[in-house]
Amino acid sequence: MSENEKIYGYARVSTREQNEDRQILALMEMGVPQSNIYLDKLSGKDFERPQYKKLLRKLDGNSVLYIKSIDRLGRNYHDLSDQWRIITKEKGADIVVIDMPLLDTRREKSLLGTFISDLILALLSYVAETEYQTIHQRQAEGIAAAKARGVRFGRMPKPLPENFQEVYQRWKHKKISLSQAAKECGMPRTTFYDRAKVFGKTMIKNS
User: Fold this and answer.
1) Catalytic residues
2) pLDDT tens readout for residues 15-34
3) What beta strand segments (E) does 14-108 contain?
4) Distance CA 22, CA 32 (A)
């Protein structure tokens, strides 16, 4: 490292996973001071991240940016390529991807070296985006399959009021209107109607 060189690290975890320690440790092992590590706990779908933006303002021609893997920087193929260009071309900084030694812009400054780095970046970012989309597609398919089996998602419904069965029976036999039934149970009309449908099916099943 040259005397004037400044090294930074960037780490990212989604809000659902809090295991940034592995990334922080890998960055520090590469010699990045902890004070120069920027961490976002946000999705990688875009670059609207406060710590990343703060880091970007720090980078210049004497900077080296370390990231553990390419998907920690981002998952969107086109946005990732654009940010790589901003960092390496506009800012003039170098990037080192720890898990992919070939993605180290300090290694080879020739046209061929730049071409190889850009080619590898394009391949890896495409794979990262495709993998992310595949995971979400599988999640969606799993949720759809679970719903088809009758699995319910979301918050548990509130317990029925004590007078629900008595009100339900009067509404079912058209002695009161839907609005009256809902009002007596302290529910919106749509909620009473939905709960009444489920209640009616349960009664038939248990009879």
Assistant:
1) 14
2) 665 678 889 999 999 999 99
3) 37-41, 63-67, 94-97
4) 14
Least confident stretch, 73-82, 111-120, 172-181? 111-120
% of the chain exceeding 90 in pLDDT: 33
Amino acid letter, 122: A
Q: Are 80 and 73 within 8 A, CB to CB?
A: yes
Which residue is it, tokens 């880091």? 55
Which residues pair with residue 8 across a beta bridge? 65
| Cβ burial, residue 63 (10 Å; 0-12/13-18/19+) | buried
Please state at what angle helix 164-172 crosses helix 178-185, rounded to 10 degrees.
180
pTM assigned to the model:
0.56
What token pair was written down for 156?
A: 């548990």
User: Are the CB atoms for 36 and 10 separated by under 8 Å?
Assistant: no
What are the φ and ψ backbone dihedral angles of 103, each rounded to 5 degrees? -90, 70
Domain 6-136, CATH 1.20.120.530 — does that match?
no
Cα 131 to Cα 56, 71, 124, 134, 139: the distances in Å are 26, 10, 10, 5, 12
φ, ψ of residue 38 in degrees (nearest 5) = -110, 130
